[in-house]
Amino acid sequence: MKIAGNAETISSRERFLEAIVQSAIDYAIISMDLDGLVTSWNEGAVNILGWTAEDMIGKPATVFFTQEDREKGIPQKEMTAALNRGRGSDERWHLRADGTMFWASGEMMALRAPDDKTIGFIKILRDRTGERERAERERLLMHELAHRMKNTLSVVQAIVTQSLRNAVSLDDATDKLQLRIAAYAKAHEILLQKDWVSATLADVVAAAGMNIGLDGSSRIRAGGPDVRLGPQAALSFAMVFHELLTNASKYGALSNEEGHVEITWDIERRDGIETLVACWREIDGPRIESSEPHRKGFGSRLIVSSLQAFGEASVSYRQEGFVLLAELPLAKIQLQSDLSAIEQLTR
User: Fold this and answer.
1) pTM of the prediction?
2) Which of 2, 41, 141, 333 is 20 to 30 A off residue 23, Cα-Cα?
Protein backbone atom coordinates (compact mmCIF):
# COMPACT_ATOMS: atom_id res chain seq x y z
CA MET A 1 0.00 0.00 0.00
CA LYS A 2 1.45 3.38 -1.04
CA ILE A 3 0.73 6.98 0.07
CA ALA A 4 1.16 9.72 -2.56
CA GLY A 5 0.13 13.30 -3.33
CA ASN A 6 0.86 16.87 -2.17
CA ALA A 7 0.24 18.04 1.40
CA GLU A 8 -3.22 19.49 0.72
CA THR A 9 -4.33 16.45 -1.28
CA ILE A 10 -2.91 14.07 1.33
CA SER A 11 -4.71 15.91 4.13
CA SER A 12 -8.04 15.64 2.29
CA ARG A 13 -7.40 12.04 1.36
CA GLU A 14 -6.39 11.16 4.91
CA ARG A 15 -9.69 12.49 6.24
CA PHE A 16 -11.56 10.54 3.58
CA LEU A 17 -9.63 7.33 4.28
CA GLU A 18 -10.05 7.82 8.04
CA ALA A 19 -13.82 8.01 7.59
CA ILE A 20 -13.79 4.80 5.55
CA VAL A 21 -11.56 2.98 8.04
CA GLN A 22 -13.64 4.02 11.05
CA SER A 23 -16.85 3.01 9.27
CA ALA A 24 -15.58 -0.54 8.68
CA ILE A 25 -16.78 -1.77 12.07
CA ASP A 26 -16.77 -5.45 11.03
CA TYR A 27 -13.05 -5.28 10.24
CA ALA A 28 -10.16 -4.63 12.57
CA ILE A 29 -7.86 -2.28 10.65
CA ILE A 30 -4.61 -1.67 12.48
CA SER A 31 -1.50 0.18 11.33
CA MET A 32 1.95 -0.35 12.86
CA ASP A 33 5.38 1.14 12.55
CA LEU A 34 8.42 -0.89 11.54
CA ASP A 35 8.88 -2.07 15.13
CA GLY A 36 5.36 -3.49 15.25
CA LEU A 37 3.99 -0.76 17.54
CA VAL A 38 0.39 0.28 16.90
CA THR A 39 -0.03 3.67 15.20
CA SER A 40 -3.79 3.51 14.47
CA TRP A 41 -6.68 1.39 15.74
CA ASN A 42 -10.13 1.66 14.17
CA GLU A 43 -13.59 1.08 15.66
CA GLY A 44 -13.68 -2.36 14.11
CA ALA A 45 -10.59 -3.29 16.13
CA VAL A 46 -12.34 -2.01 19.28
CA ASN A 47 -15.41 -4.14 18.49
CA ILE A 48 -13.48 -7.30 17.64
CA LEU A 49 -10.53 -7.17 20.03
CA GLY A 50 -11.93 -5.16 22.93
CA TRP A 51 -9.08 -2.72 23.49
CA THR A 52 -9.64 0.97 22.77
CA ALA A 53 -7.36 3.07 20.60
CA GLU A 54 -6.08 4.78 23.77
CA ASP A 55 -5.18 1.35 25.17
CA MET A 56 -3.22 0.31 22.09
CA ILE A 57 -1.56 3.28 20.41
CA GLY A 58 2.19 2.91 20.92
CA LYS A 59 1.82 -0.67 22.25
CA PRO A 60 3.09 -3.84 20.53
CA ALA A 61 0.50 -5.44 18.26
CA THR A 62 1.65 -8.82 19.55
CA VAL A 63 -0.66 -8.41 22.56
CA PHE A 64 -3.59 -10.09 20.78
CA PHE A 65 -1.55 -13.09 19.63
CA THR A 66 -1.67 -16.20 21.79
CA GLN A 67 1.29 -16.99 24.01
CA GLU A 68 2.09 -20.03 21.87
CA ASP A 69 2.15 -17.96 18.66
CA ARG A 70 4.29 -15.29 20.29
CA GLU A 71 6.79 -17.93 21.35
CA LYS A 72 6.83 -19.27 17.78
CA GLY A 73 7.56 -15.76 16.46
CA ILE A 74 4.35 -15.67 14.37
CA PRO A 75 3.95 -11.83 14.50
CA GLN A 76 7.49 -11.36 13.16
CA LYS A 77 6.92 -14.01 10.48
CA GLU A 78 3.80 -12.15 9.30
CA MET A 79 5.78 -8.91 8.95
CA THR A 80 8.58 -10.73 7.10
CA ALA A 81 6.07 -12.27 4.70
CA ALA A 82 4.49 -8.84 4.12
CA LEU A 83 7.92 -7.40 3.26
CA ASN A 84 9.01 -10.29 1.03
CA ARG A 85 5.76 -11.26 -0.66
CA GLY A 86 3.62 -8.17 -0.24
CA ARG A 87 1.30 -9.77 2.33
CA GLY A 88 1.29 -12.19 5.23
CA SER A 89 -1.64 -14.45 5.95
CA ASP A 90 -3.35 -14.32 9.35
CA GLU A 91 -5.55 -17.38 9.87
CA ARG A 92 -5.31 -18.35 13.53
CA TRP A 93 -6.67 -17.93 17.04
CA HIS A 94 -6.29 -14.48 18.61
CA LEU A 95 -6.95 -13.10 22.08
CA ARG A 96 -9.46 -10.44 23.08
CA ALA A 97 -8.96 -7.95 25.88
CA ASP A 98 -11.15 -10.06 28.18
CA GLY A 99 -8.98 -13.14 27.62
CA THR A 100 -11.41 -14.99 25.36
CA MET A 101 -10.27 -16.34 22.02
CA PHE A 102 -11.64 -15.97 18.51
CA TRP A 103 -10.66 -17.26 15.09
CA ALA A 104 -9.14 -14.45 13.03
CA SER A 105 -9.00 -14.34 9.26
CA GLY A 106 -7.05 -11.57 7.56
CA GLU A 107 -3.76 -10.32 6.19
CA MET A 108 -0.84 -8.05 7.00
CA MET A 109 0.59 -5.82 4.26
CA ALA A 110 3.59 -3.54 4.04
CA LEU A 111 2.80 0.19 4.10
CA ARG A 112 5.02 2.07 1.63
CA ALA A 113 5.82 5.75 0.92
CA PRO A 114 5.88 7.26 -2.62
CA ASP A 115 9.58 6.42 -2.93
CA ASP A 116 8.68 2.75 -2.24
CA LYS A 117 10.29 2.90 1.17
CA THR A 118 8.53 0.75 3.75
CA ILE A 119 7.24 2.94 6.58
CA GLY A 120 5.16 0.39 8.48
CA PHE A 121 2.47 -2.24 8.22
CA ILE A 122 -1.28 -2.43 8.01
CA LYS A 123 -3.20 -5.40 9.36
CA ILE A 124 -6.81 -6.16 8.42
CA LEU A 125 -8.72 -9.02 10.03
CA ARG A 126 -12.22 -10.30 10.74
CA ASP A 127 -13.71 -12.47 13.44
CA ARG A 128 -14.51 -15.76 11.66
CA THR A 129 -15.24 -17.82 14.79
CA GLY A 130 -18.83 -18.50 13.75
CA GLU A 131 -17.84 -19.73 10.29
CA ARG A 132 -15.08 -21.92 11.73
CA GLU A 133 -17.44 -23.46 14.29
CA ARG A 134 -20.02 -24.16 11.58
CA ALA A 135 -17.34 -25.78 9.42
CA GLU A 136 -16.23 -27.90 12.39
CA ARG A 137 -19.80 -28.96 13.09
CA GLU A 138 -20.22 -29.93 9.44
CA ARG A 139 -16.97 -31.90 9.56
CA LEU A 140 -18.10 -33.75 12.68
CA LEU A 141 -21.52 -34.35 11.14
CA MET A 142 -19.99 -35.86 8.03
CA HIS A 143 -17.71 -38.02 10.18
CA GLU A 144 -20.67 -39.21 12.24
CA LEU A 145 -22.71 -39.83 9.10
CA ALA A 146 -19.90 -41.90 7.59
CA HIS A 147 -19.55 -43.81 10.86
CA ARG A 148 -23.27 -44.59 11.03
CA MET A 149 -23.38 -45.56 7.37
CA LYS A 150 -20.48 -47.96 7.85
CA ASN A 151 -22.16 -49.53 10.89
CA THR A 152 -25.52 -49.75 9.13
CA LEU A 153 -24.02 -51.46 6.08
CA SER A 154 -22.13 -53.88 8.35
CA VAL A 155 -25.36 -54.84 10.11
CA VAL A 156 -27.28 -55.23 6.85
CA GLN A 157 -24.44 -57.37 5.50
CA ALA A 158 -24.65 -59.55 8.62
CA ILE A 159 -28.42 -59.86 8.31
CA VAL A 160 -28.12 -60.90 4.65
CA THR A 161 -25.32 -63.38 5.33
CA GLN A 162 -27.04 -65.05 8.26
CA SER A 163 -30.48 -65.06 6.65
CA LEU A 164 -29.15 -66.78 3.55
CA ARG A 165 -27.11 -69.22 5.59
CA ASN A 166 -30.11 -70.32 7.66
CA ALA A 167 -32.83 -70.21 4.99
CA VAL A 168 -34.48 -73.39 3.75
CA SER A 169 -35.20 -71.90 0.32
CA LEU A 170 -34.68 -68.76 -1.73
CA ASP A 171 -38.26 -67.64 -1.07
CA ASP A 172 -37.73 -68.17 2.66
CA ALA A 173 -34.55 -66.11 2.54
CA THR A 174 -36.29 -63.33 0.59
CA ASP A 175 -39.18 -63.10 3.04
CA LYS A 176 -36.95 -63.06 6.10
CA LEU A 177 -34.57 -60.52 4.59
CA GLN A 178 -37.33 -58.11 3.65
CA LEU A 179 -38.90 -58.20 7.10
CA ARG A 180 -35.62 -58.00 9.03
CA ILE A 181 -34.30 -55.09 7.02
CA ALA A 182 -37.68 -53.35 7.31
CA ALA A 183 -37.55 -53.78 11.09
CA TYR A 184 -34.03 -52.37 11.18
CA ALA A 185 -35.06 -49.43 8.97
CA LYS A 186 -38.08 -48.69 11.18
CA ALA A 187 -35.80 -48.47 14.22
CA HIS A 188 -33.61 -46.00 12.35
CA GLU A 189 -36.71 -43.94 11.54
CA ILE A 190 -37.68 -43.76 15.23
CA LEU A 191 -34.16 -42.67 16.21
CA LEU A 192 -33.99 -40.02 13.48
CA GLN A 193 -37.22 -38.51 14.81
CA LYS A 194 -35.38 -38.03 18.14
CA ASP A 195 -32.18 -36.65 16.56
CA TRP A 196 -30.50 -40.04 17.00
CA VAL A 197 -30.37 -39.56 20.77
CA SER A 198 -32.82 -42.14 22.09
CA ALA A 199 -36.07 -44.05 21.55
CA THR A 200 -38.58 -45.25 24.10
CA LEU A 201 -38.97 -48.96 24.70
CA ALA A 202 -42.72 -48.60 24.08
CA ASP A 203 -42.09 -47.04 20.66
CA VAL A 204 -39.74 -49.86 19.70
CA VAL A 205 -42.32 -52.48 20.72
CA ALA A 206 -45.07 -50.70 18.76
CA ALA A 207 -42.86 -50.40 15.67
CA ALA A 208 -42.06 -54.12 15.76
CA GLY A 209 -45.77 -54.98 15.77
CA MET A 210 -46.44 -52.56 12.94
CA ASN A 211 -43.67 -54.10 10.85
CA ILE A 212 -45.46 -57.47 10.67
CA GLY A 213 -49.00 -56.11 10.51
CA LEU A 214 -49.90 -56.47 14.19
CA ASP A 215 -49.97 -52.80 15.18
CA GLY A 216 -52.74 -52.14 17.69
CA SER A 217 -53.50 -55.82 18.09
CA SER A 218 -55.14 -56.77 21.42
CA ARG A 219 -53.09 -59.95 21.31
CA ILE A 220 -49.95 -58.01 22.10
CA ARG A 221 -50.23 -56.59 25.59
CA ALA A 222 -47.30 -54.37 26.45
CA GLY A 223 -46.72 -52.03 29.36
CA GLY A 224 -44.21 -50.51 31.70
CA PRO A 225 -42.69 -47.19 32.77
CA ASP A 226 -41.15 -44.76 30.30
CA VAL A 227 -37.70 -46.15 29.49
CA ARG A 228 -35.40 -44.52 26.98
CA LEU A 229 -32.93 -46.58 25.02
CA GLY A 230 -29.67 -45.37 23.53
CA PRO A 231 -29.26 -45.72 19.74
CA GLN A 232 -27.50 -49.08 19.79
CA ALA A 233 -29.88 -50.57 22.34
CA ALA A 234 -32.88 -49.30 20.37
CA LEU A 235 -31.62 -50.96 17.18
CA SER A 236 -30.88 -54.21 19.02
CA PHE A 237 -34.27 -54.26 20.77
CA ALA A 238 -36.00 -53.61 17.45
CA MET A 239 -34.42 -56.72 15.96
CA VAL A 240 -35.15 -58.77 19.09
CA PHE A 241 -38.86 -57.89 19.12
CA HIS A 242 -39.08 -58.49 15.39
CA GLU A 243 -37.70 -62.02 15.79
CA LEU A 244 -39.90 -62.73 18.83
CA LEU A 245 -43.07 -61.59 17.07
CA THR A 246 -42.17 -63.46 13.91
CA ASN A 247 -41.55 -66.69 15.83
CA ALA A 248 -44.73 -66.23 17.90
CA SER A 249 -46.75 -65.71 14.70
CA LYS A 250 -45.35 -68.86 13.08
CA TYR A 251 -45.01 -71.27 15.97
CA GLY A 252 -46.05 -69.64 19.24
CA ALA A 253 -48.92 -67.86 20.94
CA LEU A 254 -49.87 -65.80 17.89
CA SER A 255 -50.09 -68.81 15.60
CA ASN A 256 -53.57 -69.82 16.85
CA GLU A 257 -56.79 -67.96 17.62
CA GLU A 258 -56.59 -67.91 21.43
CA GLY A 259 -53.01 -67.03 22.29
CA HIS A 260 -51.50 -63.69 23.17
CA VAL A 261 -48.20 -62.18 24.21
CA GLU A 262 -47.45 -60.17 27.34
CA ILE A 263 -44.50 -57.80 27.28
CA THR A 264 -43.80 -56.17 30.63
CA TRP A 265 -40.91 -54.14 31.97
CA ASP A 266 -39.96 -52.22 35.08
CA ILE A 267 -36.98 -50.53 36.70
CA GLU A 268 -35.58 -52.30 39.74
CA ARG A 269 -32.42 -51.97 41.79
CA ARG A 270 -30.15 -54.99 41.47
CA ASP A 271 -26.99 -54.90 43.59
CA GLY A 272 -27.47 -51.15 43.94
CA ILE A 273 -27.71 -50.63 40.15
CA GLU A 274 -30.82 -49.38 38.35
CA THR A 275 -31.78 -52.24 36.07
CA LEU A 276 -34.38 -52.76 33.37
CA VAL A 277 -36.18 -56.02 34.08
CA ALA A 278 -38.12 -57.04 30.97
CA CYS A 279 -40.20 -60.14 30.32
CA TRP A 280 -41.72 -61.61 27.17
CA ARG A 281 -44.30 -64.27 27.95
CA GLU A 282 -46.43 -66.24 25.47
CA ILE A 283 -49.80 -67.40 26.80
CA ASP A 284 -52.41 -69.85 25.44
CA GLY A 285 -50.37 -70.78 22.43
CA PRO A 286 -49.66 -74.30 21.14
CA ARG A 287 -48.17 -76.57 23.78
CA ILE A 288 -44.38 -76.82 23.59
CA GLU A 289 -43.33 -80.46 23.56
CA SER A 290 -39.57 -79.99 23.86
CA SER A 291 -37.80 -77.96 26.53
CA GLU A 292 -35.10 -76.91 24.07
CA PRO A 293 -35.10 -76.85 20.25
CA HIS A 294 -32.59 -79.17 18.61
CA ARG A 295 -31.33 -76.44 16.31
CA LYS A 296 -31.34 -72.71 16.80
CA GLY A 297 -31.50 -70.46 13.79
CA PHE A 298 -30.12 -66.98 13.31
CA GLY A 299 -33.23 -65.37 14.79
CA SER A 300 -33.10 -67.40 17.98
CA ARG A 301 -29.40 -66.72 18.46
CA LEU A 302 -29.92 -63.05 17.68
CA ILE A 303 -32.56 -62.69 20.42
CA VAL A 304 -30.26 -63.82 23.22
CA SER A 305 -27.00 -62.38 21.88
CA SER A 306 -28.50 -58.93 21.29
CA LEU A 307 -29.69 -58.66 24.88
CA GLN A 308 -26.60 -60.24 26.43
CA ALA A 309 -24.55 -57.45 24.86
CA PHE A 310 -26.17 -55.20 27.50
CA GLY A 311 -26.66 -57.53 30.48
CA GLU A 312 -28.23 -60.87 31.32
CA ALA A 313 -30.87 -62.64 29.24
CA SER A 314 -32.34 -66.13 29.36
CA VAL A 315 -35.07 -68.04 27.55
CA SER A 316 -37.36 -70.84 28.75
CA TYR A 317 -39.24 -73.22 26.47
CA ARG A 318 -42.03 -74.05 28.91
CA GLN A 319 -44.89 -76.30 27.91
CA GLU A 320 -47.37 -73.48 28.49
CA GLY A 321 -45.38 -71.01 26.38
CA PHE A 322 -42.08 -69.43 25.52
CA VAL A 323 -40.61 -66.96 28.08
CA LEU A 324 -37.75 -64.50 27.75
CA LEU A 325 -36.37 -62.66 30.78
CA ALA A 326 -33.78 -59.88 30.55
CA GLU A 327 -32.04 -57.89 33.28
CA LEU A 328 -30.13 -55.00 31.74
CA PRO A 329 -28.41 -52.16 33.64
CA LEU A 330 -29.91 -48.84 32.57
CA ALA A 331 -26.48 -47.29 32.08
CA LYS A 332 -25.65 -49.88 29.43
CA ILE A 333 -28.85 -49.67 27.43
CA GLN A 334 -28.81 -45.88 27.43
CA LEU A 335 -25.22 -45.59 26.22
CA GLN A 336 -23.53 -48.50 24.51
CA SER A 337 -20.72 -49.11 22.04
CA ASP A 338 -21.31 -49.14 18.30
CA LEU A 339 -20.63 -52.86 17.95
CA SER A 340 -24.00 -54.54 17.63
CA ALA A 341 -24.89 -58.09 18.60
CA ILE A 342 -25.71 -58.80 14.97
CA GLU A 343 -22.12 -57.96 13.99
CA GLN A 344 -20.80 -60.06 16.87
CA LEU A 345 -22.69 -63.10 15.59
CA THR A 346 -20.71 -63.00 12.33
CA ARG A 347 -17.33 -63.00 14.02
Assistant:
1) 0.59
2) 2
State how many domains the chain has: 2
Per the structure, the complete domain to which residue 155 belongs is given by 132-345
Neighbours of 234 (CB within 10 A): 27
Q: Mean of the per-residue pLDDT values for the chain?
A: 85
In this structure, the answer to whether residues 96 and 190 fall within a common structural domain is no
Last residue within a domain, chosen from 89, 111, 127: 127
* Rounded Cα distance, 124 and 105, in Å: 9
Q: In this structure, are strands 273-283 and 260-270 parallel, antiparallel, or unpaired? A: antiparallel
Q: In this predicted model, what pLDDT tens digit does every residue of 56-67 receive, in sequence order?
A: 999 999 999 999
Alpha-carbon distance of 115 to 117, in angstroms, equals 5
Amino acid at 213: G
Residues 167 and 287 in one domain: yes
Report the candidate in 264, 271, 249 with the shortest Cα–Cα distance to residue 323: 264
Nearest to 279 by CA among 314, 249, 310: 314
3 state DSSP class of 111: strand
What is the identity of the amino acid at 198?
S
Of 127, 159, 177, which residue sits at a domain end?
A: 127
Task: Quote the radius of gyration of the chain (alpha carbons, Å).
Answer: 34
Is 243 in the same domain as 166?
yes
